[in-house]
Structure formats: C-alpha cells, structure tokens
Design a protein that fits this description.
The chain has two domains: 57 residues, no CATH class; 67 residues, Multidrug-efflux Transporter Regulator, Chain: A, Domain 2, CATH 1.10.1660. Helices cover 53% and strands 12% of the residues. A three-stranded antiparallel sheet has the order 3-5-4. It has a two-stranded antiparallel sheet with strand order 1-2.
Length: 150
C-alpha cells in the first residue's frame, strides 16, 4: 500500500501534541452545521477552502501522531493484493485466501490475481472485533457464574 507515510518522529510527536487539542476543539465547535472551512496562510492572499470534515480528520491524525503512532490515510475504494490484505489484518496470506474463497470478504479478480477493497477489509475487521468482544463478554460472564476467580 503506497498510502503509508514515514514513521512519526519525536519532533512530529511534539508538534502534534501542541496542535491536537485545538483541532479537536475546532472539530467539536463546527459540528455538522458548517460545511466549509476557510484557512488563511500568511504566504497566500486567498483563503484555502476545505470541507469541514477535514478538521475532524486532522484531529484524528494529530491525535495518533501525538502519541507516537504513524498514520496512514487510505482511500476506501483502493484495492489491495492478498498479501497487502494479510498485512493489514495481521494474518497470513493463505488465511486471507481461505476467507476470500469462503465468501467472508468480497473480492474481484484481475486475471489470476485477487483484489480486495480496503472498505471491505475494514468492514470485515469491524465484524471480527465485534464478534470477539461478544465472545469475551460471554466467557467472562461464564467464568463469574462458575466462580473461577477471573
């Protein structure tokens, strides 16, 4: 995936920490009422017009960077290979192929190569996390009911 950026440096982290609260505050104050935001730069005579959603996105990016995480911005319609999908899900490529063949994740074929939309991977990942959370709650309740001291 060529959407990944360089690793967040300590300097990036320091700068992000100084800006993250302002962007979060701006994002909350804009809410859904404003559709366009204008930002002025000293080097330019005309303001930069941006969708208001960009402020919320910037708040998320800065939030991650402020704690030292690297951040990737990926177009949801972007398609990836099975190996890239495996890297994204942190599983093996053969496991991804099995998921595709079982129909758990939609895919298309370009010749003999399988291509998977990032949006479909994210949807699968969310479903998987929700299922895991539900099962863990069930196990925790079962352990409490059986007084297993967990």
């Amino acid at each position: 995936m060529d959407a990944l950026i360089e690793k967040t440096t300590r300097e990036d982290q320091r700068i992000a920490k100084g800006s993250v609260n302002l962007f979060k505050k701006l994002s909350r104050s804009l809410g859904s009422s404003k559709k366009v935001v204008e930002i002025s730069f000293p080097e330019s005579d005309e303001p930069l017009r941006l969708p208001a959603k960009v402020i919320a996105m910037m708040a998320e990016i800065l939030s991650g960077m402020s704690v030292g995480r690297s951040v990737a911005v990926i177009q949801t319609e972007m398609e990836v290979s099975t190996q890239e999908a495996a890297d994204f899900l942190e599983v093996s490529r053969p496991h991804v192929v099995r998921l595709l063949e079982k129909g758990e994740i939609p895919f298309t074929k370009a010749g003999t190569h399988r291509r998977i939309k990032i949006s479909d991977l994210i949807a699968y990942q969310k479903t998987l996390k929700a299922t895991r959370r539900k099962q863990l709650k069930f196990l925790a309740k079962q352990a409490q009911d059986l007084k297993l001291d967990y």
